Amino acid sequence: MKTKRLAALSIAAALVLALGMSGCTGGCSMNGNTSMPSSPGGVSGSVSGSVGNGSGSSGSSQHSGSSGSISNSPSSLPDDNLMDDIESGMDDILDDVTGDNSRPDGSSSSRPGSGSSSGSESSSATTTMGTDLGEIGALSAKGLDWGPGGPRDEKNRSQGALLYNQKYGKYDALFLAADEPVVYMTFDEGYENGLTPTFLAILKEKGVKGLFFVTYDFANREPELVKQIIAEGHVLGNHSWSHKNYSTLTPKEAAEDLMKLHDYVKENFDYEMKYFRFPSGNFNEQTLAVVQSMGYKSVFWSFAYQDWLTDKQPEAAASEERLVKAACPGNIYLLHAVSTTNAQIMGSFIDRVRDAGYTWGDPATL
What totals of helices (H) and strands (E) does the chain contain, helices first? Predict the structure, then answer.
């Protein structure tokens, strides 16, 4: 990994030079500034871009298209014109900001996605950046929102998610998993609110594996919980060292931030992380390519809702209905382990999704 890291950082540095040392030309910020409350990652302030999130199965961010896990047949993909709507004005195709995917935080690869600490270096998918500096410099630095949303198809899948899979899957970016009756549980762990043990106990009782995206703050403050997550067969994911908006970072800065946490977890827990979730779900093509060059898959999500405000928790029964109705083939749920509502409904939610005909998949297979 050290060799790969140095090589990738060299590429990233060359990209910065190719971009005139700016690292971000032509629109790292999105249209408008939306003031954001403090997120579980401990970051507050304003994030450039309009706040828009899809409803139901659309997510604050996640899918893959070129990997082959999602059908690219015309019947499975929305009209190409929708992508223009998504990128030019998210709000035109999304539900209101308090909808299922209002997360302001927040296809198979050729390498194993287990995040296991086997010690052997897994082979990453071929990077789309290649070695052509002209091609690298041509990648877009335009910051994109965390979730395309949009209408759902006959299988209840977000059309925006399918489009993002198609467009960004070449960077190992996943917004919606394969078209199978399988759904996935993921958590963002910016900090601990005393509830992670409860979630772990419920997942163990129900036989469900989760993907826990941790920041440095969480890993540093909660080493015993990190050890428990690993020991119980869940997957540990990289949610960045600093929880900064990666769309505002140069490729070199993004690579250093990601690898700083990667190396910390490897050194302290003997665990090799392979999945990355962008803080707040904000990304651009440059940072997608950098993350891929680090040997990571970028896992976004197909469903999220406003569950991270600890002093403004959503009503339990309505939230459970919302989560159950969002189920669709390949759905990737993003939940926050700081939520008392989620802790209250977790067991019933898992059972009801199973009763609806879905299997809870192992995120190590994403």
Answer: 11, 10
Q: How many domains does the chain fold into?
A: 1
Cα distance between residue 261 and residue 144, in whole Å? 23
Domain span at 140: 2-365
- For residue 282, give the CATH number of its domain: 3.20.20.370
Our CA angle for 21, 34, 336, nearest 5°, is 100
Q: Which region, left, alpha or beta, applies to residue 252 given φ > 0 means left and ψ of -120 to 50 means alpha?
A: alpha
* Residue 239 and residue 279 in contact, taking contact as beta carbons nearer than 8 Å: yes
pLDDT for res 139: 87
Rounded-to-integer distance, Cα 306 and Cα 57, Å: 14
* CA dist., res. 296 & res. 113, Å (int): 9
Distant-in-sequence, close-in-space partners of 233: CB < 8 Å, separation ≥ 6: 209
Q: Are 158 and 302 in contact (CB under 8 A)?
A: yes
Do 147 and 60 meet the contact criterion of CB atoms below 8 Å apart? yes
Q: Mean of the per-residue pLDDT values for the chain?
A: 73
Kindly list the catalytic residues: 188, 336
Could you report the per-residue pLDDT of 305-353, keeping only the tens digit for each? 999 999 999 999 999 999 999 999 999 999 999 999 999 999 999 999 9
278 by DSSP, 3-state: which?
coil
Whether the model clears a pTM of 0.85, i.e. scores above it, the answer is: no
Q: For residue 353, what pLDDT is reported?
A: 98
User: How far apart are alpha carbons 334 and 199 in whole angstroms?
Assistant: 14
Two structure tokens written together for 347: 């067991």
- Reading the block at residue 220, the tokens are 């540093």
For 120-147, write each residue's pLDDT tens digit: 333 333 344 443 334 545 789 899 976 6
Nearest to 327 by CA among 165, 157, 189, 173: 157
Q: What does the alpha-carbon distance between residue 141 and residue 23 come to, in Å, rounded to a whole number?
A: 8
Residue with token string 């669709």:
328
Check: CB of residue 67 under 8 Å from CB of residue 112.
Answer: no
Over residues 61-120, the pLDDT tens digits come to: 333 333 333 333 333 444 444 444 444 433 333 332 223 333 334 322 333 333 333 333
